[in-house]
Amino acid sequence: MARRRGKNEGTIRERSDGRWEGRVLLDSGKKKIVYGKTRDEVRQQVNQIVRDKEAGLQIVTERQTLGQYLESWLPVVKQQVDFGTYRRYRNFAQTHIIPALGRVQLTKVTPQQLQKLYTKLQEDGLSTTTVFHLHSALHRALKDALKMGLIQRNVTEMVSPPRRRHHEMIPLSKDQARALLTSVFGDKFEAVFVLALTTGMREGEIFGLSWPDVDLAKKSLVVRVGLKEAEKGRAIGKTKTTSSRRRIALSQNVVDALTRHRERQREEKTKAGELWDSSFDLVFPNHFGRPLIPDNFVKRHFKPRLKQLGISEDTRFHDLRHTCATLLLADGVNIKVVSEMLGHADISITLRIYAHVLPGMHEIAADSMDRLLDEQNT
After folding, report:
1. Residue 356 carries which DSSP code?
2. b/e per residue, 170-204, with b = 16+ CB within 10 A?
3. How many domains are contained in the chain?
4. How many angstroms separate the CA atoms of 293 and 302, rounded?
5. Which one-letter DSSP state was computed for residue 238?
6. Packing angle, helices 318-330 and 335-342, rounded to 10
7. The pLDDT value given to residue 364
8. Disulfide engineering: 191 pairs with which of 27, 227, 257, 276, CB 3.0-4.6 Å?
9. 70 and 51, same structural domain?
10. Which domain holds residue 127?
């Protein structure tokens, strides 16, 4: 004869349809109900709920699916991230996660199911980097679910996502950088190339730069905003981190290039007349004063220039930023100064990215010490 269960151990009964039902009274006053084909199956579920309750774990009573949760989560996270990030989250959820696991109860998603999904997506042709980002998006979604008490654990933390493939850095050599600057002299976008190569500014920072943030007299500019993807085209928004907001000193070459650029822009503005949108006051707008689409610039101006100079077309516009950092570090400029110039949140980021340049700096330090000591003995 089965032992009568105690007051806090839940109850088990056989239903009229032949299935078994277990109930546990939660601290909230609600009841957690489970079902099974046998008494032993239900008993195991009830005992687990009791153990979780005693351990202080949240007992989830809602039966929503992963798909239902993600559809309700997306409008919330849209308010917390920039549009580009939200668009990726939405695409991952609606194109890959929901079709595969959308009907699974949120509380019953398993690590095995996720690992199987990641493997299938790679077999279907998705890159390891894309699957890595999908994993990150799902991790954030389930982290929020855990915070709200909808699940007991974040199963993405029990899965090994594929490694993210890092783009190979292709910085220009000193001679290539000089050749590029020589070739764009007098070009409409000359100042874009000069800024990228001499300041290390990001693409979005350059195309989001406005004239009020440029002080040619004091040879400096301030990075406060950047051009970002928006629901309708492009928009100017704040930089992602406080460290990205910074003041950058400008060389005379940059000042001269920006001065020439401003004169050309004034002529273009006069030619456009009333069609020119003065509300943005951008340094590098399109033909009508509005935000320029960076992808068009890369396709129509950057890539053709690389081809003309015989530079690898695998070189990205972002590699001009790497070129700036690499040349400065190789020339012995203090890495803390370079880090601040690039807008890195921490010097460790600069050290990690440009570690390949640093070994040569040991020789520079040794040569400097010889020079200092030789000067002292003369």
Report:
1. T
2. ebbeeebbebbbeebeeeebbbbbbbbbbbbbbbb
3. 3
4. 13
5. E
6. 160
7. 67
8. 257
9. no
10. 66-158
